[in-house]
């Protein structure tokens, strides 16, 4: 995927839309004008860093297309800038989740403000500002580094090589999910989980265990602690990323 790429969605190109597209391209960002259809969104979304939804005067996007767009943006972790007239904006606000919208512009558009918003959003996206954050806790430095390499292109990743280091780090930071080694020396995974749940500041942070033991008895012992889930350490990169994406999509409003 290009470092910066805008998917400019519109049902009907106009003079205004062409001006905005030129502004984006002149700023050094790739911009693709994409028809507002399910098929075209499906083909182009994976290459996008940002969505601009341009609703031309007198046009109302179909509900089926908007629903598909929402699902796609949530899956690809994208933000949207909306350009429309005041009447259509009121309709769109009711149809689009607020956390997907970065900024809304009512026509006539201030071109300078528009391109500044595009650049700001792309910068935040590039720096991982919209990504979910994960803390990996494991006493094995090689495994710790491996999982970080797997995740860093998709999430903001922090690492701790012991339970106590994780507790200390969480005293100053917060995350969306903790991947916690179950079989750590000194302070084990279950002990860390107990400490997290006894502290009002950390008790609501979801925890998934990482375990090297796949036998039934060991797995049942992990599940009995009621984490959000668990992964065997033999899991492959693609499966781990898929499972994490499924988790965040299921808990997107949490």
Q: How would you state the average pLDDT, rounded? A: 90
Helix content: 40-55%
| Proportion of residues in β-strands | 15-25%
Structural class: alpha/beta
Tally the helices: what do you get? 10
List keywords for this structure.
5-stranded parallel beta sheet, alpha/beta, 20% strand, single chain, 254 residues
SSE topology sketch:
Layout: E1 5-10, H1 15-26, E2 30-35, H2 38-44, E3 50-54, H3 63-76, E4 80-84, H4 86-95, E5 101-106, H5 111-126, E6 133-137, H6 141-151, E7 156-160, H7 163-170, E8 177-181, H8 189-198, E9 207-211, H9 216-223, E10 229-232, H10 237-250
Parallel strand pairs: 1-2, 1-3, 3-4, 4-5, 6-7, 6-8, 8-9, 9-10
Helix pairs in contact: 7-8
How would you characterize this protein structure?
With 254 residues, the chain is of the alpha/beta class. The chain has helices spanning 15-26, 38-44, 63-76, 86-95, 111-126, 141-151, 163-170, 189-198, 216-223, 237-250; strands at 5-10, 30-35, 50-54, 80-84, 101-106, 133-137, 156-160, 177-181, 207-211, 229-232. It has a five-stranded parallel sheet with strand order 2-1-3-4-5, with helices on both faces. A five-stranded parallel sheet has the order 7-6-8-9-10, with helices on both faces. Strand 4 (80-84), helix 4 (86-95) and strand 5 form a beta-alpha-beta unit. Helix 7 packs parallel to helix 8. The radius of gyration is 22 Å and the shape is elongated. The model has no long low-confidence stretch (mean pLDDT 90).
Task: Give a summary of the structure in a few sentences.
By secondary structure, the protein is of the alpha/beta class. The protein is built from 10 helices and 10 strands. Helices cover 43% and strands 20% of the residues.
């Amino acid at each position: 995927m290009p470092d910066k790429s805008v998917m400019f969605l519109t049902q009907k190109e106009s003079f205004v839309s062409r001006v905005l597209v030129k502004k984006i391209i002149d700023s050094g960002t790739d911009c693709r004008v994409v028809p507002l259809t399910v098929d075209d969104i499906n083909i182009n979304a994976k290459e996008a860093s940002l969505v601009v939804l341009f609703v031309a005067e007198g046009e109302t996007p179909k509900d089926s297309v908007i629903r598909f767009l929402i699902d796609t943006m949530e899956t690809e972790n994208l933000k949207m800038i909306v350009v429309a007239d005041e009447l259509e904006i009121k309709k769109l606000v009711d149809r689009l989740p607020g956390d997907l919208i970065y900024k809304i512009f009512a026509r006539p558009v201030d071109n300078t403000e528009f391109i500044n918003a595009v650049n700001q959003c792309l910068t935040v996206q590039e720096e991982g500002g919209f990504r979910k954050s994960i803390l990996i806790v494991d006493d094995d430095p090689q495994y710790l580094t491996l999982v970080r390499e797997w995740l860093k292109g998709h999430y903001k990743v922090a690492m701790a090589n012991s339970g106590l280091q994780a507790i200390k780090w969480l005293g100053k930071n917060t995350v969306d999910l903790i991947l916690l080694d179950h079989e750590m020396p000194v302070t084990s995974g279950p002990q860390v989980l107990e400490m997290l749940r006894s502290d009002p500041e950390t008790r609501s942070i979801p925890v998934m265990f990482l375990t090297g033991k796949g036998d039934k008895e060991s797995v049942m012992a992990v599940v009995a602690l009621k984490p959000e889930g668990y992964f065997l350490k033999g899991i492959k990169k693609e499966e781990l990323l898929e499972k994490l994406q499924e988790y965040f999509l299921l808990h997107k409003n949490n």
